Structures are given as structure tokens and as C-alpha cells.
Amino acid sequence: MAELDPTTLTAATRLVTGGRPDRVPGGSVSPPLELSSTFIADGEVGYGRNGNRTWTAFEDTLGGLEGGRALAFASGMAAVAACVSLVPTGGTVVAPFHAYNGTGGILDLYEREQRLSVRRVDISDTDAVLSALDGADLLWTESPTNPMLEIADLPTLFARARSRDVVTVCDNTFATPLLQQPLDLGADVVVHSATKYISGHSDLLLGATVTRDDALHARLYEHRTLGGAVPGPMETWLALRGMRTLHLRLERACANAADLAGRLREHQAVARVRYPDMGAVVSIELTGGKEAAERVEHAVRVWTPATSLGGVESLIERRRRHPLEPSTVPEELVRLSVGVEDVEDLWRDLDDALSAG
Ligand SMILES: *Cc1c(COP(=O)(O)O)cnc(C)c1O
Fold it and tell me: Which of 83, 100, 149, 197 to mutate to test the pocket of ligand 1 (most atoms within 8 A of CB)?
């Protein structure tokens, strides 16, 4: 019988069928969890820091969805750090003001250590980004940004960067490959915090890079192997199990987010709703300021006051509680990671909390 060609399948089917073991009578349907630090000599892998077949099952599935070769890392930040390692010493990075605060943090740190310099831009201002590209080594993009939910013109930015030999990275954590495939838009490398939507259950930390460029893949692989920021096999196994339902979770979460964004726009306690009509993160700015934002965080009962996003459960957080968060993020901004609960329960809880403020 002919092998199944995954490139003929839609994303939903790839999520369900990806990374399965070969079909042999009596074999397992789910990928085995391979817990071994070393492997019998003369095989493909050798040692557990170089590779692991449970990682590969996850990497093949994610890589297939993004249209490139994936590498799993110990966390999203480990994958971010691997991408930043592509910048030569003394090089220049163009990065959004409102990149994920850990990404902003590592760029700040390396800048203080004079390893590289950073030009910070409003990523939604295409002209400003383009004029910052001259002589740069790497363009970092996020769209939508976290937590301001600004949208970048990715195809234009990637095309111009490519013509100037600037390597481009796109953090696709918020959109997931189901809503946006940055490699098809012209990015060199996609980076993920698989901690979020990809795994989807707030029970592990994991990161990934994906690229079509063999030379970049080899450098990222070398950084992972020598830097040692490798994932545990259990994390990749759980992440792949979570990915099986990514399309279902995301569909419900996005529908809930769009519904809530519409209702929040009408709410008198809400001065501004930031929702880019994609994804399941909504940021709101409260008329009552920082104090009202803090009260709402504590008043909710269905929503959980916690950082992070992309899990089945809805999370709420005033972002400026983090010292690393840029001061251009309003004090009264509350980020909502909308989950897959019943939308009426989510609304009643949020409405009660907002109205009590
Ligand atoms: C959470 C997050 C990261 C960092 O990932 P970790 O898995 O927490 O290390 C990077 N980028 C974005 C957009 C994130 O939300």
C-alpha cells in the first residue's frame, strides 16, 4: 500500500495523523515516550542531547504545519535565545517595542553586555521598520504583538529584509500555524512558545524553531546541542497529544474571543478594546485605571488570574504587574487569554467583575 502523503492533507488532519509510528500489526497507535539518555551505538541518535524519537514526532508534526523543519527546545525562551544567537557579535537587531517581554529582556541584556545593539520600532509602522533595516543583521517580528495586539505587514517586511540580507524571525505563538504561516509569507525562521496554544493545557514548558533554510537549521541545531537547552521527552509527548486538538480548541477560543470583544466594546467600565479580529487574546483598558484593573483580576471566579495564555482555561492579567513590561503598555491594560469554556459563563463572570469595580 502507498504511504500517506501528508502534503495532500489539510492542517486539521495533519494535526491528528502527524508523528504516528509506522503501521505494523500490534504496534502502538500513539508515539512511544522514549525515556533514555543514551542509545545503542551505531544508530541514528547516539546520545539524548542530540535527538530523541519522541521529539521527532512532535517536530515533524509542527514542521509540517509551518512548512519547514522544526527543532524542539526546552522553552519558548530557549528557542528565542537560539534565534538571537544567529546575530553576529556587535550586530544589530531591529525589534518591536512591544515584543514578548522575555524577548525584549534578552535583547536588553545583550545590549547592556555590548554583544549587540537593538533598534526598537513600532512594528505596525511599516515605513519606520523599513528605514531601520539598513545595516541590520536580524529583524524580529511578532504579529499580533503581546499584549498590545498590533499587526505588522509581514510580507512587505520580510521581502524588504530579504533584499537587504537581513535574517527574519517571526514569533508565531499568538497566531499558531493554523492562522498564519510566516514561512509562506517570507520569514526565514518561525519561533514558538509551544507552552501556549500548541500544547494548550498549561501543563508544560516547550519551545520550537522552524525553518526551510538548511544552513539556519544547522546553526539552530548546533546551538541547541551545545547550549543544551533541550526539551524533556515527556514535554514533547504531551505537546503532541495537546496538538491533536489544536484546531478544535482554537476554533472555540477564537469564537469566544470575538464574541467577548464585541460585548466588551459596549461595556461602560471599558475604555478601549484591543482585538485584531484574529486569535483568542483580547486586551482591554479600563476606565477606572490601574486600581480597577487590579480589582477585576481579583473579583473573577471563572477566569483565573495568572500569567500565560493559550490554554483551555481562560486567564486574566494586568500586564504591568511585570517589571519587565514596557512602560508604553498602559497601567490599566488587562490581557485576556480566552479559553474554551461556555462563552455565557465567561461573560457573566467578567461582566460581574467589571461592574463591581
Ligand atoms: C510565552 C511566550 C514566549 C516565551 O515562551 P516560554 O515557553 O515561556 O519560555 C515567547 N513569545 C511569546 C509570544 C510568548 O507568549
Answer: 100
End-to-end C-alpha distance for the chain, whole angstroms: 64
Strand partners of residue 168: 139
CB of 195 closer than 6 angstroms to any ligand 1 atom: yes
Q: Which residue's CA is the closest to the ligand 1 atom numbered 7?
A: 76
Q: What is the DSSP letter of 197?
A: T
Distance 172 CA to ligand 1 centre (A): 10
**All cell numbers assigned to 244:** 491533536
Q: Does residue 349 have its Cβ closer than 6 Å to ligand 1?
A: no
Residues in Cβ contact with 340 at an 8 Å cutoff, skipping those fewer than 6 apart: 249, 252, 253, 256, 312
Strands 138-142 and 167-171: parallel
Domains and their CATH numbers in the chain: 9-94+135-140+158-243 (3.40.640.10), 246-355 (3.90.1150.10)
In short, whether 337's Cβ falls inside 6 Å of ligand 1 is no
pLDDT (tens place) for every residue of the chain, 357 residues total: 677 888 899 999 999 999 999 999 999 999 999 999 999 999 999 999 999 999 999 999 999 999 999 999 999 999 999 999 999 999 999 999 999 999 999 999 999 999 999 999 999 999 999 999 999 999 999 999 999 999 999 999 999 999 999 999 999 999 999 999 999 999 999 999 999 999 999 999 999 999 999 999 999 999 999 999 999 999 999 999 999 999 999 999 999 999 999 999 999 999 999 999 999 999 999 999 999 999 999 999 999 999 999 999 999 999 999 988 999 999 999 999 999 999 999 999 999 999 985
CA-proximal residue: ligand 1, atom 1 (nearest): 193
